[in-house]
Design brief:
13 helices; seven-stranded parallel sheet; 2 domains; Rossmann fold; 371 residues; alpha/beta
Length: 371
């Protein structure tokens, strides 16, 4: 089969990029079409045939301004030579047109800044002093952008998605059915090998952007006088450091390699996950390391955090609710080996076999419909 892979952009590390990397391993000869690619910031695809267009000339920091241009770019790609096209997308890449082959979209979630997180985006677009200007133009443009997004959502023949939450959102906004295949997680690299004496700190690891709500983890630990280790970097870093107020409770560490990260996760008391995300690979990695998770219980975390067994869910996305969950968490005892075992089914081989089985099933349906 002639296969092509498509993704929104390749400019930073994230869960979507990990999904694409595993698909690249499964289909190593498939070219990858994307709007922008920065191999200096993302070195996972050095052996891949990555193809970009005119948007590659724009600085990656302008990515959020380029939504309308990405819609045009992807909808005008000529993919007629391929038998199978798989898009990995949470934005505009699903807009590709596949004339002669089967088109499957691995859709993380409907484009969040058009739909379920529109209000949050309007409150804080993340452009500092330019926020008022961005709000004004985004309000003017959102209706035609939503229409274009809905047209694009009709193009895939079949949808895969990453969690029950994401499935619900796709059905709500796109009126499309999706099959859940959880993202691939490198469980064995994080697996708890032996009992480790835990310390007194909590941990969170993430790109430090406003919608990840790391500020809630910092505030909750200040409220409860608990130690917190924050690993990562991003545009919100200075704000988070300022929020910690030189309290001595919050330690900031840069992004680190996997082996070093595992050491911190295995020793941490618990992992804080206050973000509303359609899945969240980082907390699954924490669970694999035997670290129980305290998570906001509205998004994809419901698929792997079992309240009272391998962590605690909290109901409101606020520092107060997270602080209460921390206190509730400390009243429970968790068997860290059982915590690690609770995510054994999220590994790479499981992902590969489920995706290949789904493709074969879709091929049969597609061939039958063509006849």
């Amino acid at each position: 089969m002639r296969v092509a892979l498509v993704c929104d952009w390749l400019t930073n590390f994230g869960g979507g990029e990990k999904v694409l990397l595993e698909l690249h391993r499964m289909f190593p000869d498939a070219p990858i079409y994307t709007s922008q690619y920065d191999p200096n910031k993302l070195d996972w695809f050095h052996d891949a045939d990555v193809r970009t267009g005119r948007l590659q000339k724009f600085p990656a920091k302008l990515r959020r301004f380029l939504g309308p241009f990405r819609q045009w770019y992807f909808s005008h790609l000529d993919l007629s030579e391929y038998d199978l096209v798989i898009s990995v997308t949470g934005a505009e890449a699903k807009a590709v047109r596949v004339k002669n082959g089967l088109y499957i979209s691995y859709c993380h979630v409907p484009t969040q800044y058009y739909w379920q997180m529109y209000d949050d985006y309007i409150k804080n677009p993340g452009f500092g002093i330019l926020n008022p200007l961005v709000r004004f133009f985004f309000r003017l443009m959102v209706i035609p952008l939503r229409r274009a997004d809905l047209r694009a959502a009709k193009r895939p023949d079949y949808y895969i998605t990453i969690s029950e939450y994401a499935k619900e959102q796709i059905e709500k906004y796109y009126k499309r059915e999706a099959v859940i295949i959880h993202p691939p997680v490198e469980i064995q690299d994080f697996k708890l090998k032996k009992d480790v004496e835990t310390t007194d700190y909590y941990i969170t690891t993430s790109r430090q952007v406003n919608w990840k709500r790391i500020d809630l983890a910092v505030r909750a630990c200040l409220m409860t006088q608990r130690k917190l280790v924050v690993i990562g970097d991003g545009p919100e870093h200075k704000k988070l450091v300022k929020l910690a107020k030189d309290s001595g409770l919050v330690e900031f560490l840069p992004t680190m390699d996997k082996k070093e990260l595992v050491k911190y996760l295995t020793k941490a008391k618990g992992y804080l996950f206050p973000s509303l995300e359609p899945f969240g690979i980082a907390p699954v990695e924490a669970l694999a390391a035997g670290c129980p998770v305290i998570a906001y219980g509205v998004g994809g975390a419901r698929d792997y955090v079992k309240d009272g067994k391998n962590g605690v869910l909290f109901s409101e996305q606020s520092a107060k609710s997270l602080a209460e969950a921390i206190l509730k968490f400390e009243m429970k005892k968790f068997n860290r080996k059982m915590v690690s075992k609770s995510v054994d089914s999220f590994g790479l081989q499981r992902f590969d076999s489920e995706v290949l089985a789904f493709i074969k099933k879709c091929e049969k349906k597609y061939d039958k419909e063509k006849k």
